[in-house]
Design a protein that fits this description.
The protein is α/β, with parallel strands linked by helices.
Length: about 850
């Protein structure tokens, strides 16, 4: 029986991605669609993972010769092994993968790759040994005469080593470590071609992820000395007390983080017989907080919205909601109610958040309500961690997944609900990067979630305070049902009264509603025209209004957020004599100046340069950073208010998930007075002591030649304004700008969602932009500028003829043209835009040349 298999190898997609293999006799009839298998691929026969798509009846296929399978005159390769006993993907998800392939013009193998965690794939390593051909530097000619064969020194070294026995690829690399990498590869390839060495493959299973646990066996006698120093004694005593209070085993890593003990402490106490250390599979975990949090009562607005959600869940059919709630209106409580109802029905939930920084905070909310049932999934996890979480989900031990966009592809059994928080956010769109060797689909998680939910008859909740034009348009078309939360929820009377007593505040400014909840309005926004500040002689970063407000916040012991969507100390460096702009050698874009230590950094490729003493054009020493970034704001705050405790939150200070969580925890616990950061501050942070938000420069991004620039700016400003006034003391927002009359800034200052939407929709309709037309962007990169241009112009001519045959209007094709960021990471970028009601249909039968990537419904055209 033949099998159609999507091979997940990096190069398979360039050949279509789907191949036919023979089912081996040992697995006859066992393999079904969705099974994960290992197959030989390419000339070397490297074992690669694949997903079975369908079984093919063998009638009409050429009969194989003895000992081999044939397909179209060639030996058909057989499946090597089945990696999982049960199919890893069910039929609806295979259909979903086909939808992703059609919609985003990507090979189905690349769509399936998104759904297979790397922890399921065994390690494969080449093993080399001597071949049957005599390994000597002579060959016989056709006339029977021996002739010398050139053998490099690297080849001689490798042959000598293989004479002792087979070697793995890593061992070969160690033996040839003194040779350049190119020479190593050439030596191996030449010896393989001559038959002097042979290559096979060693497949080894990945070690199943295990979690270390600690159980208390006995408490020491009070006179027993737990260590030599007082610090060690106290640390180990805390550890024992925590275990005694828990009355059950606890995870070792969690226990170390909470008590500050070390692995050596655990081992020593186990030697003394006070502890028992043991391991379990990582998916057999117990949540450290087993008592669920009680849900609060709903406000009238929440109750109305909940009735619609509950009806959809009760119906058990696909339904999609746009939950439009202002910042702080209680959207998360509705998510939690919906999750509880889905779990009660025995189904699973996926909750998506836009940023890595939001994952720990959101996960805590869900873990407190559903202890032991929540798994956190983010991109870039180690394979063993992916495997552990995948096993928890597959075994139905984790019924709620909280994560970034890649969590959508975790195959949750009986998925009944998908929640997408901050659904307007651009991070839900998969980027196209030239350094990624795969042809991954440039999917949007919102569209992909809706397509998956339709196939699984699940409910989708898209929550946002600032829905984009496309989302609002779907509501008008009846594709989404809009639920509104127009009032801001501050909390419940009992809890707020406790906080009021703690901080000496009053509840007079709150409005009581029927459910004992207290509500308040959005913080007022004051727009400061920085042009007038300059005329008044103020050349500093802070306007007079912001400086006065910040001083007042610090004096009262409250907290403030300063937002600037630009990293570093200065966005560019130039020569004040000749005007030369210092650019990145790989990107042709200005280098930003960073301090501590001073260096010049490219924010696109990450290149770092030491600051030059002289201008490379005129030799002047008058090089200076211009503009401001978050580092400059931090320095200005420390200089103006040296007593203030300041934290900065951007990619420089928080490159990892743990760093994000640490900064948020420190600020939330009151360890800092001022938090300075980029757009990570705009999303989902609930900080009750923040009474002031200062937007240092609201104009950042408005000047980009992109039709969504105004919408992005409006959303950022409204979102960051929502961080203020979430607690007892109220709040205010001061927005500094050089363009106070810009429609996006004027609308944000009034929280005028409807007014901005009407104007933006009219603008897009007049120019034929989404949602009135769809866009497809074709991208090409090349290190040679001439070859990049030639490839773009060549494809443009072919595409123009193709579109004419399809009956597309002349305005359907825009370009080819260099991208706005014309050079990134050493590659020159060209693009072509297709615009029309369904430009994807024009490309369904149009094979793109190698080197081109497709971005369907791009979020920007830069």
């Amino acid at each position: 029986m033949a099998l159609e298999i999507a091979v997940l190898a990096a190069g398979a997609a360039y050949a279509g991605g789907v191949f036919v293999y023979e089912e081996p006799e040992g697995l006859g009839g066992y393999l079904r669609p969705g099974h994960l298998v290992l197959v030989p691929f390419g000339r070397s026969g490297r074992p690669e993972p694949g997903v079975v798509l369908r079984r093919i009846a063998g009638k009409g296929l050429p009969r194989p010769r003895k000992g081999e399978q044939m397909e179209e005159g060639r030996a058909r390769k057989a499946v090597l092994r089945c990696l999982e006993a049960d199919p890893v993907l069910d039929p609806p998800r295979l259909e979903w993968a086909a939808w992703l392939s059609r919609t985003y013009l990507a090979p189905i193998s690349e769509c399936l790759r998104l759904m297979i965690p790397s922890g399921l794939i065994p390690r494969r390593e080449p093993v080399y040994e001597k071949g049957h051909v005599a390994t000597c530097p002579h060959e016989r000619s056709d006339h029977g005469l021996e002739q010398a064969v050139a053998v490099s020194f690297a080849e001689q070294v490798l042959l000598a080593a293989l004479a002792e026995g087979p070697l793995t690829h890593s061992e070969v690399q160690t033996i040839l470590r003194d040779f350049p990498l190119v020479e190593r590869r050439r030596a191996i390839q030449r010896l393989l071609q001559r038959g002097w060495i042979r290559r096979s493959w060693r497949v080894s299973e990945r070690r199943l992820p295990m979690l270390r646990w600690v159980r208390l066996k006995a408490l020491p006698d009070p006179a027993f000395r737990l260590g030599r120093s007082r610090v060690v004694i106290e640390r180990r005593r805390r550890l024992l007390e925590r275990l005694e209070a828990a009355t059950r085993p606890l995870p070792a890593d969690w226990l170390q983080a909470e008590t500050g003990c070390s692995a050596h402490d655990l081992r020593q106490l186990a030697r003394w017989g006070f502890l028992e250390l043991f391991e379990q599979p990582a998916w057999e975990t117990v949540d450290p907080y087993p008592v669920p949090e009680e849900p609060p009562s709903l406000t009238p607005d929440q109750a109305i919205a909940w009735q619609s959600i509950a009806r959809a869940i009760e119906a058990g059919r696909f339904h999609a909601f746009l939950l439009h709630g202002i910042t702080g209106s209680g959207k998360t409580e509705l998510y939690l109610r919906a999750v509880a109802e889905i779990l009660r029905r025995g189904k699973g939930v996926i909750v998506l958040v836009p940023e890595l920084a939001l994952t720990p905070q959101t996960a805590r909310r869900f873990q407190a309500r559903f202890p032991g049932q929540v798994a956190v999934w983010t991109g870039g996890m180690p394979p063993t961690q992916e495997r552990a979480l995948w096993e928890r989900v597959r075994r139905r031990q984790a019924r709620v997944i909280v994560g970034t966009r890649s969590a959508l592809f975790v195959p949750m059994p009986d998925l009944g609900l998908i929640v997408i928080d901050e659904a307007h956010d651009a991070s839900y769109k998969q980027d196209l990067q030239p350094q990624i060797p795969y042809l991954l689909p440039a999917y949007h998680a919102v569209d992909a979630a809706l397509a998956l939910a339709r196939r699984l008859e699940a409910v989708v909740i898209l929550g946002t305070a600032t829905p984009g034009v496309e989302l609002r348009d779907r509501v008008e078309q009846g594709m989404l049902e809009e639920l509104s939360l127009p009032r801001r929820l501050r909390g419940y009377r009992q809890r707020l009264m406790e906080q009021a007593r703690q901080f000496g505040a009053s509840l007079d400014r709150f409005v009581e509603v029927e459910s004992e909840a207290l509500e308040s309005g959005l913080p007022s926004i004051e727009v400061v025209d920085m042009r007038q500040e300059l005329k008044a002689g103020n050349t500093g970063i802070f306007s007079r209004a912001l400086e006065k407000a910040l001083a007042q916040v610090l004096r009262r012991g409250q907290q403030a957020i300063l937002f600037l969507n630009r990293r570093g100390a200065a966005p560019f460096v130039f020569c004040r004599d000749c005007g030369h702009l210092i650019r990145c050698a790989r990107c042709d874009l200005p280098l930003a100046e960073h301090h501590q230590p001073t260096r010049w950094v490219c924010h696109h490729c990450g290149a770092v340069e030491e600051p030059a003493a002289r201008c490379p054009r005129c030799g002047s020493r008058r090089l200076k950073g211009m503009g401001i970034g978050t580092q400059a704001v931090e320095e200005a705050v420390r200089q103006r208010w040296p007593e203030a405790r300041v934290l900065r939150w951007d990619l420089d200070t928080a490159p990892t998930r743990a760093a994000h969580a640490l900064i948020w925890q420190r600020f939330a616990s009151g360890e800092a007075d001022v938090l300075i950061g980029t757009q990570v501050l705009t999303k989902g942070l609930d900080l009750p002591l923040v009474t002031l938000v200062g937007v240092i420069l609201a104009d950042v991004g408005l000047g980009l030649p992109d039709f969504r620039a105004a919408e992005r700016t409006f959303q950022l400003l409204v979102q960051v304004a929502g961080r203020a006034g979430r607690g007892l003391f109220g709040g205010r927002v001061i927005l500094q700008t050089y363009r106070p009359d810009h429609p996006a800034i004027a609308a944000a200052a009034q929280y005028d969602w409807d007014g901005f939407y009407r104007k933006e929709r009219a603008f897009r309709k007049a120019h034929g932009y989404p949602p009135f037309n769809r866009l497809v962007r074709l991208l090409h990169w090349h290190a040679d500028p001439d070859r990049a241009r030639e490839a773009a112009e060549r494809l443009g001519e072919i595409l123009r003829d193709h579109l004419e045959r399809k009956g597309a209007p002349p305005t359907a094709l825009i370009g080819p043209a260099p991208c706005y960021f014309s050079r990134l990471r050493g590659l020159y970028r060209w693009h072509i835009l297709l615009r029309g009601p369904d430009p994807v249909a024009w490309l369904q039968d149009f094979p793109l040349p190698p080197g081109w990537r497709v971005d369907v419904d791009p979020l920007d055209v830069l």
